[in-house]
Design brief:
- It is an enzyme of class 5 (isomerase).
- This is DNA 3'-5' helicase.
- By secondary structure, the chain is of the alpha/beta class.
- The protein has 5 domains: 187 residues, Rossmann fold (3-Layer(aba) Sandwich); 73 residues, Arc Repressor Mutant, subunit A (Orthogonal Bundle), CATH 1.10.10.160; 204 residues, 3-Layer(aba) Sandwich (Rossmann fold); 160 residues, PCRA, domain 4 (Orthogonal Bundle); 54 residues, Thrombin, subunit H.
- 43% of the residues lie in helices and 15% in strands.
- Strands 9, 10, 11, 12, 13, 14, 15 and 16 form an 8-stranded mixed beta sheet that branches.
- α5 crosses α6.
- The longest helix is centred in the middle third of the chain and has 21 residues.
- It is globular, with a radius of gyration of 29 Å.
- 44% of the residues are buried.
- The chain binds adenosine-5'-triphosphate and magnesium ion (MG).
- Adenosine-5'-triphosphate binds next to α2.
Length: 736
């Protein structure tokens, strides 16, 4: 084969990286400059031009989807099946390693993965058993603490918590949590990485084997590796492997999860012979989009600095739409997509990106109303749905009776008379004697610690699991799944419920049987068996391969999960202060820069058209917020932007004058009226000193009236509630 064809479709700099001599290398470049393309071509080059065996290559990608694509492309180039090649995410690869060396990693063969939802439930139970108040110790905080420590490679024994009493308790929670996981054969996501790293450190023969094997290590999206991931790569590479990392400091968006952009510097120190190659041409976005993104990110200090250009045409300006509220915003976006679709565009070309998952619901509704198919990428996942997790709980406990998380999930689902009191006895027994819940059942039954009725119920549950296990032993996975759904009573329970939701749950359960039927155990994981393979697949790859992945559908996702992807049409929704940048980021200074990088990531996903929307008021997280457009909008020079106005608009004067950018001072459009008309705006004649009454706060006296129009506010001193500032449009104040 003519290896020079491997350089087709690459510019000089890219080609230089692809065919560089076998050494370590850093490809540092901005969005859309072809980093991922270079990495893929490099793999093919190593095999075809350098004669390297696919078994000597380890490639780390950011998502399972990216891994599958890369594998496919390599297979295409090489013309052979590459299923045994190690391409995957950090979690996927580490998991594979732990499966292969479960004994060396001190894990039972049937260990299961605890997803973050199950992890949180488990932590809640532990807090309860420790009699800790979950106001003072919010379960999510404890979860963050545990995962944060694991991401830094720290076990409880490594932590000195003597200084802060709060941390002492968190540490205790960590310890108890870890003991429970170990007893039950459960590993959480952070644990997968930590164990894999410890495997290197504790089992030199295992490490030596892989060091001998992997001569080439390639990592995409390197800027988002955390300490433990870096350490894992560092140890594996030793002083022989060639490591190629590609990344972009401007796209580092997981600092909040412990990712360390400093790893880029650390890499250059640890691999002093590494060359740095910079790519500067962007092939993804039209000039307007690229230039606007460059301007935005230039507001961040301390960048490594890159100069990205494109020879693409200016293209369309960035659309900016100010919506009245989140419903108006969703309607607007959906109508634009619908227009695009009517003109022959495909839905899959359209992505709606948002800062918070909670924003998706309204968008979904608007899409449903219009009858447009959509897909939530990496969001609400099939395998995360309640009924699916129930079903998986049965499969898990059949695979491993000591799986406490699964036990808790299914022991009384459907209800079988095992109540809170019985469970408390089981939990206490388990804790006191260092047993798993299943073992505690055995002990409690043997010692007749339960009233007869409860005892029978527990025995009934155990018999059911054992019988299911026996009956399904020789069945193929899908029949096993179907049998479990029928005989556990789970399907019957949802069938008996009425309504659409229950119907959807039954359909999901049926879909699970299909999922089991189409599940193919990867060759490299054959030893673990079909059932365990399926369970791990569910926990690890959830969401990325949703059933409707192939139908033409609008793509919905958070900005975080959009990393590395590209779409002709991108809508960024909810670009408002307090939402994006998020409130939390605003409270912590250094987080603002990360939010700006996230905005840069979002904007640079767009190839042809970028539309940014924000709403003047938004109902989210169960409350109503009024906010200003995000500072990020103001950071985009006006020359790249086209403020979108609807044809039916009637101009009313803007109430805002605070923006230095003239775009915000233009007359704004007439928005759909809210349910409560502006009966109490400035024209209603509220003035200082006036007595008013409010349905909740009671009587009070107006102190001040600020602004005009829909955003006018009134400050009232209520007799019983003190001073409150309210939006006049919504406060429904009556004068008295
Ligand atoms: P990100 O930072 O967003 O991950 P990236 O640097 O990995 O981006 P790629 O996804 O590899 O960039 O490439 C962006 C787009 O440009 C892709 O559609 C890719 O196929 C295309 N592309 C890359 N290099 C070239 C080239 N030399 N000629 C034409 N198209 C290219
Ligand atoms: Mg990429």
């Amino acid at each position: 084969m003519d290896v020079s064809s491997l350089l087709d479709g690459l510019n000089d700099k890219q080609a230089e990286a692809v065919k560089a001599p076998q050494t370590s290398m850093l490809v540092l470049a901005g969005a859309g400059s072809g980093k991922t393309r270079v990495l893929t071509h490099r793999i093919a080059w190593l095999m075809q031009a350098e004669g390297q065996s696919p078994y000597s290559i380890l490639a780390v990608t950011f998502t399972n989807k990216a891994a599958a694509e890369m594998r496919e492309r390599v297979e295409h180039v090489v013309g052979a099946n590459m299923s045994r090649m190690w391409i995957g995410t950090f979690h996927g690869l580490a998991h594979r390693l732990l499966r292969t060396h479960y004994q060396d990693a001190n894990l039972p063969q049937s260990f299961q993965i605890l997803d973050s939802d199950d992890q949180l439930r488990m932590i809640k139970r532990i807090l309860k058993s420790m009699n800790l108040d979950d106001k003072q110790y919010p379960p999510r905080q404890a979860q963050g603490y545990i995962n944060g420590k694991k991401d830094q490679g720290l076990r409880p024994k490594h932590i000195d918590a003597s200084i802060f009493p709060i941390e002492q308790n968190l540490l205790k929670i960590y310890q108890i949590y870890q003991d429970s996981c170990d007893r039950a054969g459960l590993v959480d996501f952070a644990e997968i990485l930590l164990r894999a790293h410890e495997l290197w450190l504790n089992k030199p023969h295992v490490l030596a084997h892989y060091q001998d094997r992997f001569k080439h290590i390639l990592v995409d999206e390197f800027q988002d590796t955390n300490s433990i991931q870096y350490a894992w790569i560092r140890v594996l590479a030793g002083d022989k492997a060639n490591v190629m990392i590609v990344g972009d400091d401007d796209q580092s968006i997981y600092g909040w999860r412990g990712a360390q952009v400093e790893n880029l510097h650390r890499f250059l120190q640890d691999f002093p012979t590494a060359n740095t190659i910079r790519l500067e041409q962007n092939y993804r976005s039209s000039a307007n989009i690229l230039n606007a993104s460059n301007e935005l990110i230039s507001n961040n200090p301390d960048r490594l600095g890159k100069n990205l250009w494109t020879d693409d045409k200016d293209g369309e300006p960035i659309g900016l739409y100010c919506a009245f509220n989140e419903l108006d915003e969703a309607r607007f976006i959906v109508s634009r997509i619908s227009e695009w679709h009517d003109n022959g565009g495909d839905l899959t070309s359209c992505a709606i990106l948002y800062r918070s998952n909670a924003q998706s619901r309204v968008l979904e509704e608007a899409l449903l109303n219009k009858g447009l198919a959509y897909r939530i990428y990496g969001g609400l996942r099939f395998f995360e749905r309640q009924e699916i997790k129930d079903a998986m709980g049965y499969l898990r406990i059949m695979s491993n009776k000591d799986d406490d998380a699964a036990f808790e999930r299914v022991v009384n689902t459907p209800p079988r008379g095992i109540g809170g009191r019985t469970l408390d006895i089981l939990r206490t027994t388990a804790r006191q004697h260092d047993l798993t819940l299943w073992q505690a059942c055995l002990q409690v039954l043997e010692q007749k610690m339960l009233p007869a009725r409860a005892g029978n119920a527990v025995r009934g549950f155990m018999d059911l699991i054992v019988k299911l296990q026996q009956d399904t032993m020789d069945m193929p996975l899908y029949r096993l799944t179907d049998t479990v759904l029928q005989h556990s009573g789970l399907k019957g329970m949802y069938q008996a419920e009425k309504g659409e939701k229950a119907q959807a749950r039954v359909e999901n359960l049926e879909e699970l049987v299909t999922a089991a039927r189409t599940f193919e155990l990867p060759e490299e994981l054959e030893e673990m068996g079909e059932l365990n393979g399926f369970l791990s697949h569910a926990a690890l790859e959830a969401g990325e391969g949703q059933a409707d992945a192939f139908t033409d559908s609008v793509q919905l996702m958070t900005l975080h999960s959009a990393k590395g992807l590209e779409f002709p049409q991108v809508f960024m929704a909810g670009v408002e202060e307090g939402l994006f940048p998020s409130k939390m980021a605003l409270e912590e200074g250094d987080r603002l820069e990360e939010e700006r990088r996230l905005c840069y990531v979002g904007m640079t996903r767009a190839m042809e058209k970028l539309t940014i929307t924000y709403a003047e008021s938004r109902r989210i997280y169960g409350r109503e917020d009024y906010s200003r457009p995000s500072r990020f909008i103001k950071e985009i020079p006006a020359k790249y932007v086209d403020e979108i106005r609807l044809k039916t608009q009637v101009s009313i004067p803007s109430s805002r004058t605070s923006h230095s950018d003239s775009r915000f001072n233009k007359p704004r459009m007439q928005k759909p009226q809210p349910k409560l008309a502006f009966t109490q705006n400035h024209e209603s004649g509220l003035s200082s000193g006036q007595k008013v009454t409010h349905s909740k706060f009671g009587d009070g006296k107006v102190l001040d009236v600020e602004g005009s129009g829909p955003r006018a506010q009134v400050k009232v001193n209520f007799d019983d509630y003190g001073v409150k500032t309210l939006m006049i449009a919504y406060a429904k104040l009556e004068t008295i």
